[in-house]
Amino acid sequence: MFVCICKGITDKQIKKMVIEQGAGSIRELKLKLDIASQCGTCVKLTQQIIDDTIVDESLFKDVG
Question: Where is the BFD-like [2Fe-2S]-binding domain positioned along the sequence (predicted)?
Fold first, then answer.
């Protein structure tokens, strides 16, 4: 799904940056993707995706 309509960034791209590049905040994500740089409507959803991805990844690491 598109999260940032202005820049055409999807939730999958955000998750990939969190998992593979270790982006843990919007500030870190902005270094990799040009997200939340125009209208700002995507900020809340982007932060939620970052938080959910970090929680999901840490839970899987503890199980294994």
Answer: 3-51
